[in-house]
Design a protein that fits this description.
This protein has 254 residues and is an alpha/beta fold. The protein has a single domain, classed as NAD(P)-binding Rossmann-like Domain (Rossmann fold, 3-Layer(aba) Sandwich), CATH 3.40.50.720. Helix content is 45%, strand content 15%.
């Protein structure tokens, strides 16, 4: 269907070499997009590119440190140099440090805030001129259920992901005039390397998630393929500033 066709579009996915990022990259690739996997781990980048190419799509990898402005700008410049354009940016890179609030050091706080929120600002700031020049743009920011809920072990993470939603809304209002739509996805409990560590650190987490989630399971990275295609495609041209949960109904229970 033309509304969901991404042929000729170029998408950059930060943290696209695994987990939710790779799930979204594969979805957009199957819809016709050329994918740029942006991450620090060269081996993981190469493996992700191979997987995307095996799915029949074009893909390349560009190393990036999303904590550095120059690196984010180089990512955009290299993407345009290699592929001729930049249409879609997925701000997916992020980390978590699970501690009670009084146990954080200031350095740990900044690590989480900068990795999750400031990085998305830097990449979006770098991408904006190219998207404006092209007359079209889609920015997809990855929030979290912690954008909605609080948790005693996720003070910095929740703050960064709550900020992601508000930044999404602000960018959406600022850039709508340039035909750039900015939306957020709020994942629930998804089976990734990050949450596997959480299950090791938080007693009872696995069973509690299953009990609370109406779908009765943890999410998979592949569950994000469809929402990524929708928010990257013409189908969502009048959707901007939204924060869409992908959580199997977890947040519906309040």
């Amino acid at each position: 269907m033309e509304l969901f066709d991404l042929s000729g579009r170029v998408a950059v996915v930060t943290g696209g070499n695994g987990g939710i990022g790779l799930g979204m990259a594969l979805g957009m690739a199957r819809a016709g997009a050329t994918i740029v996997v942006a991450g620090r781990d060269a081996a993981k980048n190469a493996a992700a590119v191979k997987q995307i190419q095996e799915a029949g799509a074009k893909a390349s990898a560009i190393p990036v440190d999303v904590l550095k402005e120059d690196s984010c700008r180089a990512l955009v410049a290299d993407t345009v140099k290699t592929h001729g354009r930049l249409d879609i940016l997925v701000n997916n890179a992020g980390v978590n440090i699970r501690k009670q609030p009084e146990q954080y050091t200031l350095a740990e706080w900044h690590t989480v805030m900068d990795s999750n929120l400031t990085s998305a600002f830097l990449c979006s700031h770098a991408a904006y001129p190219e998207m404006k020049k092209g007359g079209v743009g889609k920015i997809i920011n990855i929030g979290s259920m912690m954008s909605i809920f609080g948790a005693p072990f996720a003070t910095a993470y929740a703050a960064s992901k709550g900020g992601m939603v508000q930044m999404t809304k602000a960018m959406a209002t600022a850039w709508a005039k340039d035909n750039i739509q900015v939306n957020a996805i709020l994942p629930g409990w998804i089976d990734t390397a990050l949450t596997r560590r959480a299950r090791e650190q938080i007693q009872g987490l696995h069973d509690n998630v299953l009990k609370r989630t109406p779908a009765g399971r943890w999410g998979e990275p592949s569950d994000f393929a469809g929402i990524a295609v929708f928010l990257a495609a013409a189908a969502s041209d009048f959707v901007t500033g939204a924060a869409i949960t992908v959580d199997g109904g977890y947040s519906v229970l309040g």
